Structures are given as structure tokens and as C-alpha cells.
Amino acid sequence: MTVKPVLLDANQPERFYRGGAAIAELRGAGNAEEWGPEDWVGSTTTLFGQHTAGLSALPGGELLRSAIEAAPQAWLGAEHVAEYGPNPALLVKLLDAGQRLPVHCHPSDAFAASHLDCRFGKTEAWVVVGTSGANPVVYVGFREDVPAEVVAAWVAGQETSTMLGALNEVPVKPGDTVFVPAGLPHAIGAGVFIVELQQPTDFSVLMEWTGFAEEGDSSVHLGLGFEAALGCVDRSGWGPGRLEPLIRHTADQRGPSVDLLGEQSLTFFRADRVHTESPVELEPGFAVLVTLDGSGRLSTSDGGSLELVRGNTVLVPHAAGSSRVDGDLVLVRCRPPIVGGTQS
């Protein structure tokens, strides 16, 4: 089956926080008020507890999930399908924090398997592509060990300033990347615009829910109750030496392809930034492309061809073969995990 690269429309399910102006500006949308804070790109993942919300549609209206289920090897490749079935094992988002996101965390694979009947947890990574405001920051990991009973008390009392103050505050700028292992408590500050890669779930434990969810909303603890859900929180201390490997500064790096996340991400997802000062050849494989700047052309060995401009998002199937990108483009290429790795 021949499957060619496709341009994707925006896919912005309703979320619980404000934002979206940066997504509208990148995509050239006329009215930012019509845009939500997240654009789920090439998604076969639904919002937690939902049947279809979050799923991406192909041109013509067919759901990507249905198309992949009908021809998994064409879309994903035989090796990937042997490991993960008809699942890309990847979710890519554009995320524009119009306000600070709440302190929250995500379960690991082991926790998801034992509590949520799912092989995937939610390790994620942030590729910062824009910032606004005087002090764009993210918050990642407790600075010091925190006992379980203290975390439980913070959450029960909604001591949000205390929780936020216990986290590492990390200034960010475009070109920075942050790898966020499952379990690590975190928040994204207002004015931070990212391309987010993550495992293909919508599992979030909102440690801070006041102002973001209705009282009694069980989705904030994934329907498990906080006593069980807080068992997924990494309460260990992440001092500077331990935190440093999670953060990269790549703004000054050029070349045809810049590895954005390094080896720590390979068993979860991969990301690189492509610069086409000269034509760049890309190996075959399922990929999501986010065009950050410029214009140019994507050509594939199966005869597919797309003109690309800033703001385009593109889905490249495995069966499209090797790709060539030329022109004057800067884009982020997001790919599934290395097959055969051991996730933690």
C-alpha cells in the first residue's frame, strides 16, 4: 500500500487552561480566540476518559487511528508493529501556556500497567520554540526529598505555593529542551510555547487542581483516588547535578540535523531540528514534522511531494521511504522510540 506524506489541520481538543495565541500565530490563524492551548499533531490518542476527542483526522475526514489500524506496516513499519502493534507509540503536541499550568505529574509504564491497564505511562519532553513575558520558566522536580505524607498534605490542602516553591525553577528560551521522566512533578510557566513529545496517553495526576478542575472531578487522580495516584510521584530530590542532564541548550547548534534530546529519550521518542541551508536527506520511518520557519519542499522516494511553509504540520508514513527536504526551512522532526529498547 502506498501512503504519502500529508499536511495536517489543527486538532485542538478542549483543555482546562488558557492559551493558544502562539499556535494561532505560528499557523497563521486569523482569530486566536478560536484556538485552544494544545494542538495534538498526528494523534491516535484520546483525552482521558473520552472516546474520540483528541484524535487526528486525515484530509478527507478519516481518523488517523483507523487508517493505521487498516495498514499498520505501511504507516509504521514492520519492526515497529511487531513491538507496539498499530500504535505510533508517540503523541506530539504544540502547547502554548497562556497561563501557568498546574503542578502535576504522570505515571510510569509500570504504574500504568498495574493501575490503569495500559503498557504506556507518560514520559515527555519539551522543545521550547517561543517565549513571552519577563521571566519564562518551567518547574521540574523537587529540589529535595519530600516524604509521602508531606506531599499528601500539600495536595489535600491545595498548598499550591508551597508545592511550586519546592520545585526547581528553570529559566528557558527558544532552543532549550527539557526531558521529563515519568513521575517527575512539574509545571510549565506562562508564556512558554513548546513542541511536546510524549508517550501516547493522557494520564495526568493534578497535584494542584484548584482553579483548573471542578471539586470532586475524579479525572484529576485518574479515577484512582489520591492515596493511590500519588504513588506515581517521584518524591526524590533533583539537585543541580541530577537535573542538569535533563536540560539542553541547542539554540546555537546548526547543521543538517541537531539531536535535541540525546540518548536518554531513545526508548520513548526521538526529536531533531532540521536546517535546510542545503538539501537534507532523511531515512525512512514514521515521523511528525513541525515547520518552525521558512519555506521549502519535502520529497519522498515513493514520489510524494509537499510544499512547506512556516506553521505546517506534516505526517510522514514509513512506506513513503526516504525523504529529502530542501529550501530554507527549520523544522522539528519527531519520531517514535527505538524498537527493542527497555523502557522504565
Task: Walk me through the structure.
- The chain is an alpha+beta fold and 344 residues long.
- It folds into two domains: 6-249, Sandwich (Jelly Rolls); 257-335, Sandwich (Jelly Rolls).
- The chain is 17% helix and 29% strand.
- It contains nine helices and 19 strands.
- The strands form four sheets. Strands 1, 13, 14, 15, 16, 17, 18 and 19 form an eight-stranded antiparallel beta sheet that branches.
- The mean pLDDT is 95.
Helices, strands, pairings?
Layout: E1 6-7, H1 21-27, E2 38-41, H2 64-70, H3 72-76, H4 78-84, E3 91-96, E4 104-105, H5 109-115, E5 124-131, E6 137-142, H6 148-156, H7 160-166, E7 167-171, E8 176-180, E9 186-188, E10 192-198, E11 205-206, H8 226-229, H9 240-243, E12 247-249, E13 257-259, E14 270-275, E15 280-282, E16 287-300, E17 305-309, E18 313-316, E19 323-335
Antiparallel strand pairs: 1-18, 2-3, 3-10, 4-11, 5-8, 5-10, 6-7, 6-9, 8-12, 13-14, 14-19, 15-19, 16-17, 16-18, 16-19
Which tags fit this structure?
alpha+beta, six-stranded antiparallel beta sheet, 9 helices, Jelly Rolls, 344 residues, eight-stranded antiparallel beta sheet, single chain
Q: What overall form do the CA principal axes indicate?
A: globular
Coarse structural class: alpha+beta
- What CATH first level of the largest domain would be assigned? Mainly Beta
**Uncertain segments of ≥5 residues (pLDDT<50)?**
none
Structurally, the number of domains stands at: 2
What is the tally of beta strands?
19
- SSE series: EHEHHHEEHEEHHEEEEEHHEEEEEEEE
Largest sheet: 8 strands, antiparallel
User: What's the helical proportion of residues?
Assistant: 10-25%
Chain-averaged pLDDT: 95
In CATH, the homologous superfamily of the largest domain goes by the name Jelly Rolls
Q: How many distinct helices?
A: 9
CATH topology of the largest domain: Jelly Rolls
Oligomer: single chain
What is the beta-strand fraction?
25-35%
CATH-defined architecture of the largest domain? Sandwich
Q: Report the C-alpha radius of gyration, rounded.
A: 19 Å
